[in-house]
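User: I've been trying to design a sequence by hand for this structure and keep getting stuck. Would you show me what you'd pick, starting by listing the structure so we're on the same page?

Assistant: Good idea, let's start from the same input. This is the structure you sent:
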């Protein structure tokens, strides 16, 4: 089994982690910048071991955050939005990449970035994790990553998986491109609402605006209403559009909080096809947390393997042998070399993808069994890495 890449996403010691396995010592330099893949060589400079408590953040277990009040407004230069309607002008404009170089951060309270507009489900997740935080909207996922890197905000809360729609692949890819650490996660039950202008009945609607995923999750009611579906980048943005344009036969699918923020009526609640619709969010920060053994932790890694019979099975076996539970397995094509010809003669026609494998396992890096598992993953009985990054 040949390990081509190892990503470890939050470390007890920032920058370098050492693993001891028998008489073999492996020193891995952890950075978030993918280099050229070579056999027997790490292909990534990645950013630390992702450790976070696995207990979902709930109303009975909320982190204590100093300072700040629950708010959707941000006093950043160039961020305030000019709208003709008074209540809309009080809501912040999402940060874009061009805003990030000039926006100050006074550090007076905890500021949390999320993708979307005020009223987005991501903002609800941020407020669930940090009830007293100042939320900062960003126009895209990458802007939220950059906002943390540039010290504009303290944390970012970004979706990674939905129980109906599956994984958010864009954020998996961005984890490899940015030098951030996973320091927690929060689970949010998504309750879609059908929204309309005040006084409008749902039977009057001819069009409904929302994110494509929301349409897929609310197909039954939309089919019954026989409305035209109009796509939007996010659900809160759809609610804002309906409010600002004032067209009575156009509704939106968004949260109840978005209805309150944008002055809309909730025409129907919990309209999703599946009642249990849960999104899992990652909490990202500049610095890793120091994992302990006081509770169950979750660690995230990513790696790539050379092709061969049973190589993925052998890689995963290092966790099973130590009674470590795997909470999540995700694969993504390795973009540096997505296709490989099957035979070495270069005459074969069959090709297949090389993959990165993302693994979440339930163990703290403070535990010897987790250290030995990662040491075993990099130094197995069948091979020895001869180009270890020092």
């Amino acid at each position: 089994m040949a390990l081509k890449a190892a990503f470890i996403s939050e470390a007890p010691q920032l920058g370098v982690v050492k693993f001891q396995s028998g008489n073999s010592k492996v020193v891995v330099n952890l950075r978030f910048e993918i280099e050229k893949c070579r056999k027997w060589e790490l292909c990534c400079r990645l950013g630390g071991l992702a450790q976070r408590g696995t207990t979902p953040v709930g109303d009975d277990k909320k982190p204590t955050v100093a300072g700040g009040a629950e708010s959707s407004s941000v006093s950043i230069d160039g961020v305030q939005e000019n709208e003709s309607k008074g209540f809309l002008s009080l809501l912040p404009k999402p940060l874009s990449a061009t805003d990030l170089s000039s926006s100050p951060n006074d550090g007076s309270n905890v500021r949390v970035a999320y993708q979307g507009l005020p009223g987005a489900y991501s903002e609800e997740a941020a407020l669930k994790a940090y009830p007293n935080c100042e939320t900062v909207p960003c126009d895209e996922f990458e802007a939220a990553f950059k906002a943390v890197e540039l010290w504009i905000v303290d944390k970012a809360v970004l979706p990674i998986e939905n129980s109906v729609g599956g994984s958010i692949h864009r954020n998996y890819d961005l984890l490899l491109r940015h030098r951030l650490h996973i320091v927690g996660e929060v689970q949010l039950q998504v309750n879609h609402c059908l929204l309309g202008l005040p006084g409008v009945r749902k039977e009057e609607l001819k069009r409904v605006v929302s994110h494509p995923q929301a349409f897929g999750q609310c197909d039954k009611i939309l089919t019954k209403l026989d409305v035209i579906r109009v796509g939007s980048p996010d659900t809160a943005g759809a609610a804002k559009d309906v409010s600002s344009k004032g067209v009575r036969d156009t509704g939106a699918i968004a949260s109840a909080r978005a209805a309150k923020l944008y002055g809309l009526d909730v025409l129907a609640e919990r309209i999703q096809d599946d009642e249990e619709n849960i999104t899992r969010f990652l909490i990202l920060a500049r610095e890793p947390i120091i994992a302990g053994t006081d509770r169950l932790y979750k660690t995230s890694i990513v790696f790539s393997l050379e092709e061969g019979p049973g190589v993925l099975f052998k890689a995963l076996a290092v966790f099973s042998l130590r009674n470590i539970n795997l909470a999540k397995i995700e694969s993504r094509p390795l973009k540096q070399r997505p296709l490989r010809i099957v035979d070495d003669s270069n005459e074969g026609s069959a090709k297949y993808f090389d993959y990165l494998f993302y693994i979440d396992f339930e163990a703290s890096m403070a535990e010897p069994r987790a250290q030995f598992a990662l040491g075993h993953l990099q130094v197995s009985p069948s091979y020895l890495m001869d180009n270890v990054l020092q």
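That's my pick for every position. To get oriented when you compare it with your attempt: Residues 4-49, 54-85, 97-108, 380-390 have pLDDT under 50 and may be disordered. DSSP finds ten helices and 22 strands in the chain.
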